[in-house]
Amino acid sequence: MAENLGSCLVCPITFTLFCDPVVAEDGHTYERQAIIDWIQQNSTSPLTREPITIAGLRSNHIVRNLVDEFRKTLSKHNYKFKLGVDIERSQNPFFQTTGKALFEGKWIGYPNGPRIILLKLLGARAEKEASFYEHLTRHPHIVYTYGLVEQPNTTSNTFLMLLQEMAPEGSLLNVLEHYSEKYPNSPLSDLLLNHIFLQISDAMTFLSSKGIIHGDLACRNVLVFHFDTQEPNRTLVKLTDFGISRGNSIYSKIDAVATVIDTIPIRSSAPEVLQDSDNDSTDVYSEKTDMFAMGVLMWEAYSNGRIPWSEIHKESSVRKKVINGERLSRPDNCKSDCQWNLILKCMSQNPDDRPTFKELTKQLTELITLPIDSHLPKTCQSTITSKNSSIIKEDKNEKIHENPQSSSDLQEKDLSNTDNCQEINESSPSLVDVSVKSRRNYFEQIIGSQKSLSPTKSLPIGKSTEIILPREELIKVKFLIL
């Protein structure tokens, strides 16, 4: 975590701005529900490892007021910011592709604000209010959007800019490529990859429940906030660039301008999309087309970020193969038949044979919780059944375990009625049993150098309502965008 005052307003468990901050007996501030869940499982501090109790938690009103002030600053702008007035942008993008560019950004008049980037979409126009994009990203595995950025004194209106949080590790594609170069003989474990797949599937379950199609689900559109091969449950990823396709209504295309909305990712698209690509129809896009792309994404991850069908140069040839039912070959690193069968299931020719993201989330949860060694047994029982599938055979005597409630199930309420608190703090515990609660010793590495918001000595347990003050420097912070 960055050592700045802005990071002091972020919970070291949920990695989001505080909603209900409390000080524990270790002298550190946490999100109330997150630390309660942690204590119930571990009974020790996630930072110092000393014993702490739920009874010893006290509200941190100073931090809460500072966070509220920051949120009010965002909302008073109606989640719209002006380039050169509220936000400063780097001159050159650090990433650029067809119709899209990413720039580093800084808050003007707010040097201690959270790290941000600007996503520039050429030939795109926002179809919703700025607050819609902010509300839609209140999910633990979706990159948070602060709002829209306008460029003053510009006659051209041929692009859209989104203000988003920055991922310190970059894209999953870059992480996979870097890891394979550094450790060519040590493939990533099924457990680590399943933790990543689970978080992506959980985000997609949420988007699907809102009628949002991603349209370009791939490793390059998954951002990594922490990556840990030793303890996979520490890894944290978030989904980005959703809704930028012809199958969505949250962005619209500007005629006569080359845009990412026009682009069809041939090498990861479902056969029904490739078959219909000449008709420019939006009806063909669905959760099941995203599920096909999810299968390709999992193939990418097992292939260390390799381009799908890289041995074939012409995309027209790839299109023909996929339409005719051919599929990507099994990666060498995918040792488990169960894992490969699941990937093939996601890439089924018939959309009805593909699982929903809710079903996939359940399957991945079971794969994580079951004691399966990815390098010993090559076969395992599948828990997704389909009467039309000949790929996966189910052991009828095996009882299917119930999966914990997904975070999307906790976020079914209308986004327009959400309060100013990010829903991450409510949705995170849903996957805590698998990927959040069990992140032992996680914070000792990434926040070990961070100073406590309050004295490090233990706090007395009692009913006192005394306000716990953070360190002096934090009290002086003013969260105002001039």
Q: Can you offer a commentary on this structure?
A:
The chain is an alpha+beta fold and 482 residues long. The protein has two domains: 1-76 and 438-482, Herpes Virus-1 (2-Layer Sandwich); 168-417, Transferase(Phosphotransferase), domain 1 (Orthogonal Bundle), CATH 1.10.510.10. It is 28% helix and 12% strand. It is built from 14 helices and 14 strands. The protein has helices spanning 32-42, 61-76, 130-136, 172-182, 190-209, 271-276, 287-302, 315-323, 337-346, 357-369, 424-427, 432-436, 442-446, 472-475, and strands at 21-23, 29-31, 58-59, 80-82, 87-89, 95-97, 100-107, 116-122, 124-126, 145-150, 159-165, 222-226, 236-239, 251-253. The strands form four sheets. Strands 4, 5, 6, 7, 8, 10 and 11 form a seven-stranded mixed sheet that branches. A hairpin with an 8-residue loop joins strand 7 (100-107) and strand 8. Helix 5 runs antiparallel to helix 7 (287-302) and helix 7 packs antiparallel against helix 9 (337-346). The chain is globular, with a radius of gyration of 23 Å. The model is unreliable at 1-5, 249-261, 372-379, 381-420 and 422-482 (pLDDT under 50).
Topology summary:
Layout: E1 21-23, E2 29-31, H1 32-42, E3 58-59, H2 61-76, E4 80-82, E5 87-89, E6 95-97, E7 100-107, E8 116-122, E9 124-126, H3 130-136, E10 145-150, E11 159-165, H4 172-182, H5 190-209, E12 222-226, E13 236-239, E14 251-253, H6 271-276, H7 287-302, H8 315-323, H9 337-346, H10 357-369, H11 424-427, H12 432-436, H13 442-446, H14 472-475
Parallel strand pairs: 4-10
Antiparallel strand pairs: 1-2, 1-3, 5-7, 6-7, 7-8, 8-11, 9-14, 10-11, 12-13
Helix pairs in contact: 5-7, 5-10, 7-9
